Amino acid sequence: MTILTKLSSSLNRRDEVPNRELAKGIATAKDKKAVQELVENLSSKNKDIQNDCIKVLYEIGTLNPALIAPFAADFVALLDSKNNRLQWGAMTALHTIAQENPKIIYNALAKIIAVADQGSVITNDHCVGILLKLCRVKAYEKDAFSLLIERLMIAPTNQLPMYAEQVLPIIQASNKVLFIKTLSARLGDIEKDTKRKRVEKVIAKLNKS
Fold first, then answer.
1. If 0-12 CB within 10 Å is exposed, 13-18 middle and 19+ buried, where does residue 203 land?
2. Cβ contacts of 90 within 8 Å, gap of 6 or more
3. Which residues contact 82 (CB under 8 A, 6 or more apart)?
4. CA–CA separation, 23 vs 162, rounded Å?
5. Which of 146, 61, 63, 160 shows the shortest CA–CA distance to 101?
6. Whole-angstrom distance, CA of residue 4 vs CA of residue 40
7. Per-residue pLDDT for the chain (209 aa), expressed as one digit of tens each?
8. Nearest Cα to 167, choosing from 191, 136, 208, 137?
9. What sign does the CA torsion over 37, 38, 39, 42 have?
10. Structural Rg of the chain based on CA atoms
11. How many other CB atoms are there within 10 angstroms of residue 106's CB atom?
């Protein structure tokens, strides 16, 4: 029996609970056949099925990234989709597997950045997440960090404090000064006191280290 019958849309459900439960079951069973079926149906003529499949896939990626890592190229291709749900869903999936299949994702960074520049807040959040994971891969660390700094320079002030806090754990002596300089340059852009104080706290922690 096809697993498509277990998708939220197939069950006439408007919530995501069935999709999350399906993802958990597939991840636990390490069901590669089910993953393959989900990937194949990303091109379904039924948009609801497309949307459910990408949801299940990135939920699987969160639980067991190795299961969906072989399909990195498929997710990269979806970044060009006119279906916004597929586009940011693909970015989410790539985020979950960035350390499982870093080479393909690194080679697709130009597209990932271009999509983030035109995309939603969610798309940008996952783009930053991808860069953070690539910063932990020695071969891609330098380039990924340079791109991360560029994202921080143009990040909306609502997102900047969160990004600064996420970047903090990967900062080393070699890039600390640049990170501090970048955040300091953005302080004047932040109108909300609570947001600015969060960034100032990150800077203060670095200055003490």
1. middle
2. 54, 75, 76, 78, 79, 81
3. none
4. 28
5. 61
6. 11
7. 689 999 999 999 989 999 999 999 999 999 999 999 999 999 999 999 999 999 999 999 999 999 999 999 999 999 999 999 999 999 999 999 999 999 999 999 999 999 999 988 999 999 999 999 999 999 999 999 999 999 999 999 999 999 999 999 999 999 999 999 999 999 999 999 999 999 999 999 999 87
8. 136
9. positive
10. 19
11. 17
**pTM for this structure?**
0.94
Tokens 């670095």 sit at which residue?
206
> Do you know the residue count of the chain?
209
CA dist 128 to 29, 75, 113, Å? 30, 17, 9
Phi, psi dihedral angles at 116 (to 5 degrees): -60, -40
Kindly report the number of other CB atoms within 10 A of residue 174's CB atom: 10
> Helix 121-134 crosses helix 109-118 at what angle (to 10 degrees)?
150
199 token code pair: 């960034």
Tell me which residue of 67, 46, 63, 58 sits closest to 91, measured CA to CA: 58
Residue with tokens 């950045």: 113
